[in-house]
Amino acid sequence: MTDFPADLGEIEVRAQELLDDAAWEYLSRGAADNVTRAANVVAWQAFRLRPHVLRDVSALDTRTTVLGTDVGAPILVAPTAMHRFFCDEGEKATARAAAAADTVYIVSMAATTSFEDVAAVAPGASRWAQMYMLSDRGRTRALAQRARDAGYCAIVASVDGAAVPTRRRTVQQSLTPPEWFRFPNLASDDNADTADVMALVEDFDTSVTFDDLACFGEWSGLPVVVKGVLRGDDAARCLDAGAAAIAVSNHGGRTLDGVIATADALPDVVDAVGGRAEVYVDGGIRNGVDVAKALALGARAVLTGRPVLWGLAVGAEAGAIHVLNVLADQVAKAMAFCGAVRVDELTRDLLSTVVVARDRNEGET
Amino acid sequence: MTDFPADLGEIEVRAQELLDDAAWEYLSRGAADNVTRAANVVAWQAFRLRPHVLRDVSALDTRTTVLGTDVGAPILVAPTAMHRFFCDEGEKATARAAAAADTVYIVSMAATTSFEDVAAVAPGASRWAQMYMLSDRGRTRALAQRARDAGYCAIVASVDGAAVPTRRRTVQQSLTPPEWFRFPNLASDDNADTADVMALVEDFDTSVTFDDLACFGEWSGLPVVVKGVLRGDDAARCLDAGAAAIAVSNHGGRTLDGVIATADALPDVVDAVGGRAEVYVDGGIRNGVDVAKALALGARAVLTGRPVLWGLAVGAEAGAIHVLNVLADQVAKAMAFCGAVRVDELTRDLLSTVVVARDRNEGET
Amino acid sequence: MTDFPADLGEIEVRAQELLDDAAWEYLSRGAADNVTRAANVVAWQAFRLRPHVLRDVSALDTRTTVLGTDVGAPILVAPTAMHRFFCDEGEKATARAAAAADTVYIVSMAATTSFEDVAAVAPGASRWAQMYMLSDRGRTRALAQRARDAGYCAIVASVDGAAVPTRRRTVQQSLTPPEWFRFPNLASDDNADTADVMALVEDFDTSVTFDDLACFGEWSGLPVVVKGVLRGDDAARCLDAGAAAIAVSNHGGRTLDGVIATADALPDVVDAVGGRAEVYVDGGIRNGVDVAKALALGARAVLTGRPVLWGLAVGAEAGAIHVLNVLADQVAKAMAFCGAVRVDELTRDLLSTVVVARDRNEGET
Amino acid sequence: MTDFPADLGEIEVRAQELLDDAAWEYLSRGAADNVTRAANVVAWQAFRLRPHVLRDVSALDTRTTVLGTDVGAPILVAPTAMHRFFCDEGEKATARAAAAADTVYIVSMAATTSFEDVAAVAPGASRWAQMYMLSDRGRTRALAQRARDAGYCAIVASVDGAAVPTRRRTVQQSLTPPEWFRFPNLASDDNADTADVMALVEDFDTSVTFDDLACFGEWSGLPVVVKGVLRGDDAARCLDAGAAAIAVSNHGGRTLDGVIATADALPDVVDAVGGRAEVYVDGGIRNGVDVAKALALGARAVLTGRPVLWGLAVGAEAGAIHVLNVLADQVAKAMAFCGAVRVDELTRDLLSTVVVARDRNEGET
Questions:
Q1: How many CB atoms lie within 10 A of CB A171?
Q2: How would you classify residue C174: left for phi > 0, otherwise alpha for psi between -120 and 50, otherwise beta?
Q3: Average pLDDT over every residue of B198-222
Q4: Which of the four pLDDT bands, split at 50, 70 and 90, describes residue B195?
Q5: Are the CB atoms for B345 and B351 separated by under 8 Å?
Q6: At what angle are helices A288-296 and A262-273 packed, to 10 degrees?
Q7: Which SS3 state, helix, strand or coil, does residue D228 take?
Q8: Is B124 exposed, middle or buried (0-12, 13-18, 19+ CB in 10 A)?
Q9: Is D247 in CB contact (< 8 Å) with chain C?
Q10: Beta-carbon neighbour count of residue A112 at 10 Å?
């Protein structure tokens, strides 16, 4: 039934074969010259592990908690948009996959399925709701309250929407939205069927500051994860403003090309947070060894975005489950080879200080 | 009307397609093995940004001043020679484009249009006049005075003309000068139609020193920008000699191959100048993120050379306007994503200290 | 008779030509993306030698001892599995080659020839027996005692078997075991003909700790070399637990992809051991200069794995002898050019501190 | 008459086209994997110049002295073997070329023309004689005395002959010596026509030490330059033993592959010598900018080897003159652009400390 390649790289290749060019470009591209998108991947590789031997790893366990929720492995499903482009069931398939893999699914505000419908297909699972502050704060408040009412456990407030990104090719415009296309989470109250993909980013509130973070919690009564932080000082200010957790992210290299890789930004954020809150990270994580390195650098868990979409493309719900399981299995192997039986035994001491150069040719032309 | 690619890389490709080989070689090549020309581009990429989030950027403004002149963005038109090779109207098109883009055009001594004719087509705009000290100081004085009389606001004194550069292929010699070809700024008083492109560099005064810098100001009554400085100690001596500003430049890698990239030289110059004067930089700047990095390193503005010529080649005045507008838009995006609403909020703290190796394969063979 | 290429790189090419694809893949591949396998090779190259001149090297001698045994050069035969895949005589050919080259052959637990048969073909030579702690400790004890009874001089206890490695392609499964295929060292007492290559790794005891190291010595009465250590702290604990020597190894990049290269791990281990025991190293050593660098970093000797298999593939016993002789000759040349007449004159001072970047593109896709 | 390419890279290409494969391989190859040969070239490129501006360079002069002899530029002809493979006149052409270029020609012991015949064709020029200490010291003494008698001004004692180098392909053996082939400098007194190219290296005395250096001076009455030093401590010992100068060299990467690049070794030697003697350097110098960098690092002059052979191959004497003139012209340009009017104004301060990574892919396979 799940006759998928064991290697995520091969799943990526198969996804590219199955998707049409516009969807693939949309999925895979970063901003501008892809410098940051590629740097994300390279930065994890540049760290080398110094594994411990001769530790009893027969009772190894990858389980952990995120904001108090049990998960089978420190791998959450990152918020990504428009899953119905990648398989017919879209976010419903993702929701079932995350539940099957025993992890949290962070549903995107720009999902092609409503928060409520996503929740309905996997009622026992944990979900968080991702959203930007919109210029129309009433719409944002309504969205936060819908998420709460649908049983979501946290708000993931994205803070990297200060401008419309530069894209080498205007892939969004070449994506021909099919008839069913909607952003049901963004529909206004009066006209639930309306959605304009092009106008979405323009709706973001570019005046949002640390002081506004508290709104998400006030509106929803839920803890707030701030996603898109790349600096320790900003992370500390988020915590001062009431954030429950920080997600280090550069949006998969899709916002400002030339920003620091997330693996390189993570230690600064971890140090600034100083254990006061959980820190997650996404960007360029392509196997379980990268996950282990992220945890060794101080992350509580990682968010995985594109690999889940590859899984949806190659096998819908089963494909996404496979991707999540492969990553979890690889984390377990990495832990075993490093002599760590619990995720909190992955510490910085496991990382080598030998300099592996990050090559300038990180981007594509 | 302006149906140009949104990406400067694509504009470069189109320019290469439209120009004949000799013109393209002349435009694109650096000295010798292109090591420095390529290093210029790579050095900007090697810096990674650490953007701030959650700052109100709704009222973002890219405007600044250079020597007291208002410009719409910190991007000036660098002095480059012989624009009539790239479009029929040559420097007149560039002048109109700079005016439309609300910025300063630094007109080259080796323009194929006279300082006066350039000034006449865009009377309301700000222009600076670039020149080398010629062995015949009387000719240099006359040129400085012509610039003043034509309403130019500053003299840009180039100081990187100590020798004839080594070029891999003698592209200048393969450029067949058409009938109209003239250097009207360099014509002697007696014979306004004479111009010898080959003899130009030989006319440079190789005995010029810091003590001679004051001449440009005395002759013209204008502030003097010294262009071609790559060291802090030299920059300080320029200021002591009365310079109003410093332009860090290696002439786009066209003089001595093997000199330091301008992005790597800039911090030393900025530190030595210590706020006493404005510092500009050119070389390898290919998008607005590079501009933002230059300002973060302490530059007041950048000079853009080859991209403007690509614009002239693909669309004459409209093409050059497009290039300048794209760069300005990208600067605005970079500022927004970095949480900077004014250009002076771009500071060094935005740059990562993670080492991104500069590869040895920077040049071409 | 020995008309083999003088260069090991050419021998590698010839071996690839002669072996079928599955055998070559099995031999050459590392885990996952080959990052560590490739990093092993690159890390040696990154060190540059600072040779001494004007020393009398006319009486140069590459001889040394390992655990008190004389060897002609500081190059031992690493334990590698299933030599009968590479030549008909398998481990018997290797044993004769090691004897001819005057060095120690470390026979793998996963040999396709029994410890006893290997010993019988080269009775005068020194051999060590490699093994993992199996979940069935009785089987492990029996194996250690068989090695002792067959005249082996040391137990090489591998400690890098905490999990089943991730392999890009399941090369083991594509290897079609021929009729003769057996792991005679692993056969149970009751059924000497049984061997299941797939089940081998699952038999490893993942609960083994430093406290268990002593078993190997107690069972066999032999000194114990701990193989697979990559950290100084672990090496020190091995010595505290009674180990006689440490072999720095990442299993040729075949276990956890992303671990540190052995050349980069070696100095830490050497420093932690502090002369209390011998330290060996393997991984990525491809010529005698690499051997000299390993000794300069503090290794007593190197273990060579894949090159011996190339030799078996291209010329059975004679091919393996050739490989070992080439390496020994190259060590002698390296010593001569460095002004070292004895191996203990290869010291760290011979290595340059100039940083040669390790490229990120170390692995293959 | 001298219609040669202005660029040495193009001359190299033309030389390769003109020479047969064996001669080209012999000329161009380094030892083993070419790691050091390639690293030599790369190491110069990795240094970046920080040129001075606004210095009067109208009276620039590249002249200097080596061991008291005036030369037109700091570029000597390195000792290389068997010039008759590259043009009919062989070393006679080289001698006339060096004289025409106003520099010193260091004639190789392995020349295909005798020291005497070389001297006869350019009587007014300065020449030094290169030699190894042979096992038969009487032959070495005779050779040193012949050099003195033929008017040579210095003995260049090579000290990098401790072993026969490893060559990827045995290019020497594929070179079919033509009928005229002789090493007249190495012929015994009794049989002046005998020469065995294969036996040459075996004749080197591998027991030679610092104490033996004085022999060359005692035998010849000439100053002794020690060539092949790569460490400061060795250089100091050479001076203590009476050496007049040090030539930093790794024999163009032709001895032990993996030794440090000469550009990286030079500063250590310069610092250890501390101005007590002249230091020269060769290896990887491919243009005048590299020469300027070598002098900035403290070298008194460079030795150029392969480029002169390219010149011989493309144009015999005229080709070699062209190569030497191109290099001298490029040095002059580099000095001008750096604001240096005399060679002693090229100082370390002109070199940037920005790290340009040396790539691992320096060698060829």
A1: 17
A2: alpha
A3: 92
A4: low
A5: no
A6: 30
A7: strand
A8: exposed
A9: no
A10: 24
| B34 in Cβ contact with B257 (< 8 Å) | yes
Q: What are φ and ψ of residue A99, in 5° steps?
A: -65, -45
How far apart are the C-alpha atoms of D338 and B163, rounded to whole Å? 10
pLDDT tens digit string along D157-175?
Answer: 999 999 888 765 555 556 6
Nearest to D82 by CA among D185, D166, D151: D185
Given a cut of 90, is residue B165 above it in pLDDT? no
Question: Is residue B143 helix, strand or coil?
Answer: helix
3-class state of residue C358 by DSSP: strand
Give the ipTM of the model, two decimals please: 0.94
As a whole-number percent, the residues of chain B with pLDDT over 70 amount to 90
Residue-by-residue DSSP string for B145-214: HHHHHTT--EEEEE---SSPPP-SS-HHHHS---TT---TTT--SS-TT---GGGTGGGB-TT--GGGHH
Q: B46: helix, coil or strand?
A: helix
Q: At what angle do helices A306-338 and A8-18 cross, to 10 degrees?
A: 170
Residue positions of A annotated with a catalytic role: 251
Residues C9-27 have pLDDT tens digits of 999 999 999 999 888 988 9
Which burial class, exposed, middle or buried, applies to C187 when counting CB atoms under 10 A from its CB (0-12, 13-18, 19+)? middle
Structure-token pair, residue A292 = 């282990």
d(C-alpha D170, C-alpha B301), whole Å: 58
Closest Cβ opposite residue D54 in set B35, B39, B159: B159
Q: Tell me the pLDDT tens digit for each residue of C122-141.
A: 999 999 999 999 999 999 99
CATH number of residue C307's parent domain: 3.20.20.70
Which contiguous run of DSSP H or E holds residue C183?
A: none
Break chain A down into helix, strand, coil percent, rounded to 5.
Answer: 40, 15, 45
Q: Among residues C293, C299, C258, C260, which one has the least CA distance to residue C278?
A: C299
Contact call for A360 and B355, based on CB within 8 A: no
C228 contacts A53? CB cut-off 8 A: yes
> A241 to chain B: nearest residue by CA?
B54
B213 CB neighbours in chain D (<8 A) are 54
Is A57 part of a structural domain of the chain? yes
Residue B1: predicted pLDDT: 46
Pairing of strands B245-248, B224-229: parallel
User: Which of the residues of B are catalytic?
Assistant: 251
pLDDT band at D200 (very low <50, low <70, confident <90, very high): confident
Distances (CA, A) of D190 to D113, D114, D117, D187, D205: 18, 16, 19, 8, 21
Enter the DSSP assignment of C78: P
- Which residues contact residue D240 at a Cβ distance below 8 angstroms, ignoring those fewer than 6 apart? D210
Domain contains D2: no
Q: Could you tell me if B176 lies within 8 Å of chain D, comparing CB atoms?
A: no
Q: Give a yes or no: residue D87 inside a domain.
A: yes
pLDDT single digits (tens) C69-114: 999 999 999 999 999 999 999 999 999 999 999 999 999 999 999 9
Which residues from D are below 8 Å from C9, CB to CB? 33, 168, 365
Residue D134 in 3-state DSSP? strand
| SS3 of residue B94 by DSSP | helix
Q: Does B359 touch chain A (CB under 8 A)?
A: yes
pLDDT tens, B214-247?
A: 999 999 999 999 999 999 999 999 999 999 999 9
- Higher-confidence residue of D361 and A164: namely A164
Domain that holds residue B205: 8-350
- Structural domain count, chain D: 1
| Of residues D163, D212, D260, nearest to C48 (C-beta) | D260
- In-domain check, residue B365: no
